[in-house]
Design goal:
There is one protein chain. This protein is an alpha+beta fold. It has one domain: 3-Layer(aba) Sandwich (Endonuclease, Chain A). The chain has seven helices and four strands, in the order ααβββαβαααα. The chain has a four-stranded mixed β-sheet, sandwiched between helices. Helix 3 links the parallel strand 3 and strand 4. The longest helix is centred in the middle third of the chain and has 24 residues. The termini are far apart. The C terminus is likely disordered.
Length: about 160
């Protein structure tokens, strides 16, 4: 089926559409940070790649990568329609992720990338990863995780990564 718009008009129409990003997954992670009293984070600071969360004092950035858009090896499936376009688009996303990670690390930032599926399946593990990086910069100020949680047998299994 042909498009009702010319290629230039379609481009103009599509450019006006603004996505809402990964707002839902960001809210989940923000709730987890609050639950485990992890503070000092800011949303979407103006850094390369616009990290979802930034801990400026400890120089930690966190990206929550969607399984489709960032080609999760477990869940990403290439759409059947317009395969050439999607392969190019999604490959460019992955290449940009690598470039942004390298730039941030070269500038002294610790980069934590969390898959969308891990956030729902293993939330404590995700928070622990971030806490570990943030905690390195805050040594001597105590753990971000509740003592009763860290000492439980379930937590010890979860922490073993």
């Amino acid at each position: 089926m042909s498009d009702v718009f010319s290629q230039a008009k379609r481009s103009e129409v599509m450019a006006r559409i603004r996505g809402r990003g990964n707002e839902e997954t960001e809210q989940v992670l923000a709730r987890l940070f609050r639950k485990y009293k992890i503070s000092g984070w800011r949303l979407h600071l103006d850094l390369p790649g616009r990290p979802d969360f930034t801990f400026p004092k400890s120089q930690v950035v966190v990206f929550v990568d969607g399984c489709f858009w960032h080609r999760c090896p477990l869940h990403s499936k290439m759409p059947r329609n317009n395969r050439g376009f999607w392969k190019k688009k999604l490959s460019a996303n992955v290449a940009r992720d690598k470039k942004v990670t390298r730039i941030l690390r070269d500038n002294g930032w610790h980069v934590v990338r969390i898959w969308e599926h891990d956030l729902s399946a293993k939330p404590f593990k995700c928070v622990s990863r971030v806490s570990r990086f943030v905690g390195e910069a805050h040594k001597g100020r105590g753990s971000f995780l509740p003592a009763d949680h860290a000492s439980s047998p379930a937590a010890q299994k979860t922490n073993a990564f």
